[in-house]
Amino acid sequence: MHFTEWRAMALPVDESHEISVDWFNGRRTPDANPFVKGGIMGLSLGSDAPRVFHSLVESTCFGARAIVEQFTCQGVPVKGLIGIGGIAQKSPYIMQMLADVFNMPIKINRSEQTCAMGAAMFAATAAGIYEKVEQAMQAMGQGFGMEYSPDKKKALIYDRRYRKYREMGDFIEKQQRGAFL
Question: Model pTM greater than 0.70?
């Protein structure tokens, strides 16, 4: 774990910290717009690297939440969250924050090659080795190595900060849209 991440992990979660919008490369889904830019509000002379890092991680989690909320609005139920890959396996700090932001448990897949394993499961099913993908998953899957449960107190604070994130994003987009008209 990097020193900045370690120090950010020690910060208390509160409503008055710096807050970011993660659109430094344009807005991603659900309402993709490559022209808008991100921002950080609430900076002060006391805004050190761990506080800014925390704000950026938080905004990435908020962006993921906006995507999942869009799925739900479109009738695609989200019954659970599974983390795969590098960050999921290497950053308990980020995964715990994600669980708190979503107010849902997150299971971390044990496999380091989850996408390749999933492709192999579908191939084994298509080849007739298994009748159903679920059978291939049962036989070939490696299970979960970790699970993060939300902290209910932090989840309430993150919920209020998420609303600020959405408001800040709407404001930024309106301001930048006006600049292009």
Answer: yes
Q: Where are the domains of the chain?
A: 3-78+156-180
**Closest Cα to residue 18, out of 42, 49, 39?**
42
For residue range 55-67, what is the model confidence (pLDDT) as tens digits? Answer: 999 999 999 999 9
pLDDT tens for each residue of 87-112: 998 899 999 999 999 999 999 998 88
Cα–Cα distance, 4 to 27 (Å, whole number): 26
- CA distances to 23, 58, 146 from 53, rounded to whole Å, are 15, 8, 24
Q: Which fold has domain 3-78+156-180?
A: Nucleotidyltransferase; domain 5 (3.30.420)
The SS3 call for residue 108 is strand
Q: How far apart are the first and last CA of the chain?
A: 45
> Are the CB atoms for 55 and 19 separated by under 8 Å?
yes
